[in-house]
Amino acid sequence: MPRLVVAAPASGHGKTTVATGLLAALRHRGLTVSPHKVGPDYIDPGYHALAAGRPGRNLDPWLVGEERIAPLLRHGANVPTPADIAVVEGVMGLHDGAVGRGAYASTAHVARLIDAPVLLVLDTTAQGRSAAALVLGMRAFDLAVRIGGVILNRVGSPRHETLLRDALAEVEVPVLGAVTRAAEVTAPSRHLGLVPVAERAPESRAVVAALADLVESTVDLDAVLDLARTAPPLTVPAWDPAGAVGGPAGTARPVVAVAGGPAFTFSYAETTELLTAAGADVVTVDPLRDPALPAGTRAVVVGGGFPEVHAEALAANAGLRADLAGFDGPVVAECAGLLYLGKALDGVPMCGRLDHTARMTGRLTLGYRDAVAGTDSPVHHAGDPVRGHEFHRTVTDPGHGERPAWRWDGAAHGFVAGRVHASYLHTHWAGHPQATRRLVEAASR
């Protein structure tokens, strides 16, 4: 399978612009393109999915284990149909990994695991011949990572482009494209990054179309395809959700409602695949619009998103809030779900299923976590080790319950109350599929 990784020396160089534009431009050529994102981020894959016409998927060694990265890539490239090429957008700088863990979970780490060449996006603002030295250093830092080409971004003028191309020719790194500052296309951002696709679908489609035009006019797509074809064959078997969960947990096929819609956009594609493979009937519920839980709901999953942006509309849907407040089946909530299940968010009433309030702060809490389940719950046995990720600007009062969901760094986090498991921790169920089976078994009971 031809494949490549779009990386950069640091955040802000234009990886998402180039990766999304490449996906859309290659699709315009009639190719089936499989989109992937290094790291835990949920928002970029939404733009990837819009550009490629198929789910954007994450490749994060911290969340799922490095042994699953190549199998998950193959799975994503095979579902729903086999892809002609996979484009993987990196995270942060090429060699930036989990804090204190060296290159682990970095873009370079993933490029090695999937044996893919790297296409480096370089912000050339206020830079001339030194750009070649930067690329040379990036290439020499880890010889197991192959930088196969560069796309120059934010080029100031034709003369600037010529200077940059000449410098990179000296270090024998091919330039596969050059994007001028005037031509740059961006999507709007706010407190946690880009605005998700689901919140501005028409505008997002226009941005993706503009990015496709930009890449088609500034990047040598034939050279990009040639670079992707230099990746050797992947011999590992594709990840299989049915194999991961051990098949259906029973014959009952309980209905599991998964929150979606503009307020709850943070979900990995593998979550619903695992739930289905474990024997659940997965139904999406939109807390902004649906007046009640789907008929026959036996379990609820409320993932991440932006309830703080939609608090008034969520509060106005009193019917669904009441349904969730009185629901006695298993409930799993992460981050936004934690806020939604509480009594109030910034003074606006929420479901009241959990006895806490939440508020926005000016502080960003961000990072990988090595967690241990603090309490038996519908998804974990106490003591189960799980790796996850935090990314929020809110706090809850109290910060955890008497029966905490997790413990890490010597502290308790989150809530287990009855059959509810809720916390700020985002997890990827492909990394611990037993949680999926345990949830479906609990729903069946």
UniProtKB/TrEMBL annotation:
The segment(s) forming the CobB/CobQ-like glutamine amidotransferase domain are 256-432
Ordered alphabetically, the record's keywords are: ATP-binding, Cobalamin biosynthesis, Glutamine amidotransferase, Ligase, Magnesium, Nucleotide-binding
- The keyword Ribosomal protein belongs to this UniProt entry's keyword annotation: no
Q: Which reaction is the catalytic activity of this chain?
A: hydrogenobyrinate + 2 L-glutamine + 2 ATP + 2 H2O = hydrogenobyrinate a,c-diamide + 2 L-glutamate + 2 ADP + 2 phosphate + 2 H(+)
Pathway, per record: Cofactor biosynthesis; adenosylcobalamin biosynthesis; cob(II)yrinate a,c-diamide from precorrin-2 (aerobic route): step 9/10
Q: Does the keyword field hold ATP-binding?
A: yes
Which InterPro entries does the record associate with it?
CbiA/CobB_synth (IPR004484), Class_I_gatase-like (IPR029062), CobQ/CobB/MinD/ParA_Nub-bd_dom (IPR002586), GATase_3 (IPR011698), P-loop_NTPase (IPR027417)
> EC number(s) in its UniProt entry?
6.3.5.9
Instruction: List the active site.
Output: C335 (nucleophile)
Needed cofactors: Mg(2+)
Record text about domains? Comprises of two domains. The C-terminal domain contains the binding site for glutamine and catalyzes the hydrolysis of this substrate to glutamate and ammonia. The N-terminal domain is anticipated to bind ATP and hydrogenobyrinate and catalyzes the ultimate synthesis of the diamide product. The ammonia produced via the glutaminase domain is probably translocated to the adjacent domain via a molecular tunnel, where it reacts with an activated intermediate.
Q: What name is this protein filed under?
A: Hydrogenobyrinate a,c-diamide synthase
The species this protein was found in = Micromonospora sicca
